[in-house]
Amino acid sequence: MVWQPRVERLRRLLPGLWAGMLLCTALIATPAPFALLERADAGRVVGRIFVQEAWLSLALALSLLAIERVRARRASELGQGSVLSTEMLLALGTVFCTVAGYFAIQPLLPAARAGQSVFSFGQLHAVSTLFFGLKTVLVLVLAWRVAKPATVSPAPFS
Predict the structure, then answer these.
(1) pLDDT tens digit string along 82-133?
(2) Contact between 64 and 142 (Cβ < 8 Å)
(3) Where do the domains of the chain lie?
(4) Own/partner long-range contacts of 79-87 (Cβ < 8 Å, ≥24 apart)
(5) How far is 127 from 134, CA to CA, in rounded Å?
């Protein structure tokens, strides 16, 4: 089919782009406002960055899950693997990290900042940071796995 090579290119391209976005967010986009703005203003800017990152991560994860689901089903039908591939598990892990790290923890932060929560702001921030870090590692592993060549050819100088 004509669409299959395009889908395979997307399958290989999206995790690398996603990993780059996550690394850029962590290493450039979030520290910069704290270097230039008052703490409260920087917090609002970074909060907005993470809103966009969370929604984009969900969209990318769901796109990759759909692609990997079709790919795993085809491999299973050919007797070449399970319906639940490693790549699917990695993508599911990123969905979990995004939902838990952003959508579950973010609503708790204002109350924690005001001292009205069981958990401190620092504790919730640390847990959120751990989920973001784990998601980044999962995406990097996914990018590494899907970037490998389809067939292994012998080394040219062996």
Answers:
(1) 778 899 999 999 999 999 999 999 999 989 988 898 999 999 999 999 999 9
(2) yes
(3) 3-147
(4) 86/145, 87/142, 87/145, 87/146
(5) 11
